Amino acid sequence: MPQANTPVILGLKKSFGFGDRLGLAGPGHIAALEKSTFYGMLAQQSMRELTRSRRRADQVVEAARTAVEAAHFTRPWGADADHLKTVEDVAHTAKAGFTFFTLDPSASVANAADTMSEDELRAETGKLAAEGLLPGDWPRRYLDGKWEVDNGPPLTFDEESLLRAAVKYTRATATCARLYQAVAEHCTSRPFEVEIAVDETSAPTSHREHLFLALELKRRGVSFISLAPRFVGKFEKGIDYVGDIAAFNDELKRHVAIARTLGPYKISVHSGSDKFSLYPSIGRICGDLLHVKTAGTSYLEALRVVWRTDPELFREIAHYAAEHFEEEKTSFLISTTDEEVAALARDWPVDPESAYFEERVGRQLLHVTFGSVLVLGRRPSGLPFNEAIRESLHTHAGEYRQTLEACFTRHLSLLESESA
Known about the structure:
InterPro entries: UxaE
Pfam family, one: UxaE
Number of helices: 18
CATH superfamily of the largest domain: Aldolase class I
GO molecular function: isomerase activity
CATH class of the largest domain: Alpha Beta
Protein name: Tagaturonate/fructuronate epimerase
Number of strands: 8
Distance between the termini: 31 Å
Strand content: 5-15%
């Protein structure tokens, strides 16, 4: 029986990932989780976040362990090494004690397949077969198949849809197999779980693409507990869903049906924080086959506490963030523009808490500039922002805990509001 302060695999229990860029959010995360039926990934960090914040993977796991021990938290919890792209990423996070590995093959996804002609698609699949990435009889496996996943029409492939799916995702499945093998080699003495993340592709994942991806992963021996498709609409950082909610719900129902039929495995919702308009239907449609990831919300709530307790420090951070927004925004899905940030920075708002923590421009500005702020930013005195923020949060630890508890209780309660 594992100790309570050791991360474990969570299986098909519905789960929620809490990103923590500072390593101080655990008490608030646990306080919210204790009122919920969700299981928590109390350690979660992507390689991108580790690089930008200059934290080590073992520090992420240790921060979660410390919070678990202090709270006398006894429920199982997990540790998610997020968006791993190389075998070196796998080795680094496995050594640190992570139990859940999110494999990101996005660099191997051929997004150009969406617009290729059929002749171009045939040429590409010929190359894939010649390289041994597709078996000789691969078209018949799919063209002759029919997959009953729900009460709707069965899923089938015609030649064009099959060619597009194969060109788009075959190399990605090979990348996943290579990374999966690395995970297995580094976790020989302990259980582990794997998620496949294709949420950072250029277009939504169709149901046929989901089907092809899952079947090819299984053919390659990749066992996964969850899959993160790219959904219709926009899952921007730090704000609610942008798009047609009814269309999203219709798409999600069939993604869940595929996951239930071919697995079962969970559907993972990335950039899942603050999607309040979707939470009730996500919880209802997915049931226990659900994992939700949040990353920057706890950092934003930390800065909210800084604003409330040391307004001058926050003002310095906000101006510094605006100066570095253009260089930091590139790898994030956001709609905030340089012009909007410049306008916000030019005239200090009448209600700063609303402007920076309730509105799109301020939230996304703070969300994407965490790397510059935490690593390079300094107060006029020379004190690094990182140290100043930590000092403020240690001094006001109770307020930070309560702020996080309220924030994530809202997230989790809405996800459970329409559950059966």
